[in-house]
Amino acid sequence: MAKVIMKGNEAIAKAAILAGCRYFMGYPITPQNEVPEYFSRELPLVGGTFVQAESEVAAINMVYGAGAAGARAMTSSSSPGIALKQEGIGYCVKGEIPCVVVSMMRGGPGLGTIQPSQSDYLQATRGGSNGDYHIPVLAPGSVQEAVDFVKESFEIAECYRTPVMVLCDGLIGQMMEPVELDHEPTKREKVDLSTWALGHSPKGKTNTIINLDIDAPNCERENFRFFEEKYPAIEKNEVRWEEFMMEDAEYAFVSYGTTARIIKNAVKALRAEGMKIGLVRPQTLWPFPQKPFENKKIKKWIVGEMNMGQMVPDVQLACGKKEDVLFYGRTGGMIPTPEEYIDFAKKELGGAK
Predict the structure, then answer these.
(1) In a 10 Å sphere around its CB, with 0-12 CB exposed, 13-18 middle and 19+ buried, how is residue 297 labelled?
(2) Coil vs helix vs strand at 102
(3) Tens digits of per-residue pLDDT, 104-137?
(4) Torsion of CA 54, 155, 137, 133, to 10 degrees
């Protein structure tokens, strides 16, 4: 298929439809409004159902219901809207409901700004719901990756019976880029719907999905199963990252999403001046990639984000040395420039070559 130019938000919705999503429940909020707008227009044309819910809370619980019946269902929102969905996401985790949540980040805290940000890294990777849990979090760095990751997310969700979050900063949703829409996701083994989904029970059996578990020993067993079986399998099979100019690097930036695109330009400029520096770009934020941080040649890591350093602890844990991790970022909807990272690297690394 030839490439077409699409806005990120619309491309995300188109990718979901191509992936077989037939139920979308959401609520408008900037900067992701084009996602539900596209679904409202296009889903009915393929026999799907679009619902503009009365709130973000209602939307995620509708996704719970559709996912519980085995349907491919999705919701999307931006930062404060995702905060409202957290309880429902936790319910989906406990009920093992496959679904996809797209988070298009903007500046915060609170209602904050409508400009792009990455201030919800902790919200996504640590979760705002109660209990012990993880969900896979994919962080695309382009509109093409957003398309591909949305398709992958449905496969991951159904393979492991879990919610999956696609975490984008607002720039990814608003920019327009050429994309190929026919990329096929990696097919994974799915859990047979007849073994768990409502309405798919074999004759003589009734599937049930339980969220309130009064029996403490049983609730503990389920938590152990998640952490001993499900999450290790996700960490083994689904972690991904990109390395850019890391072959002979002595220093490295760590960044994701749009900020990583900005830093790539800084890396090229610093390389032209003789500095051996590269970039590690996590594409999954949970599970967080560990292997690239085993590189013992790297003297210093510079984390770059559009927040106040939320990924820094993960990088410190991965490389094992807090003192080797530096940070530079902008927040509140402000976007850093390549020149800022060039200047920071020169200042902190002493023009090292």
Answers:
(1) exposed
(2) strand
(3) 999 999 999 999 999 999 999 998 899 999 999 9
(4) 80
Q: How far apart are CA 225 and CA 233, in angstroms?
A: 11
Helix (H, G, I), strand (E, B) or coil at 2: coil
Residues 230-288: tens digit of each pLDDT: 999 999 999 999 999 999 999 999 999 999 999 999 999 999 999 999 999 999 999 99
- Distance from C-alpha of 247 to C-alpha of 252, rounded to nearest angstrom: 11
Task: Collect all residues with Cβ–Cβ distance below 8 Å to 222 and sequence separation of at least 6.
Answer: 213
Task: Report the distance separating Cα 338 and Cα 220, nearest Å.
Answer: 48
In this prediction, residue 140 carries a pLDDT of: 98
For residue 179, the cross-strand partners are 4
**How many of the other CB atoms lie within 10 Å of CB of 339?**
12
Q: Please give the domain boundaries of the chain with CATH numbers for all domains.
A: 4-237 (3.40.50.970), 242-349 (3.40.50.920)
CA 69, distance to chain mean position in Å, is 24
CA 46 centroid distance within chain? 26
| Amino acid letter, 7 | K
Q: What's the CA dihedral at 167, 170, 176, 177 to 10 degrees?
A: -40
Beta strands, E only, 58-114: 73-78, 99-105
Mean pLDDT of the chain: 97
**Mean pLDDT in residue range 66-83:** 98
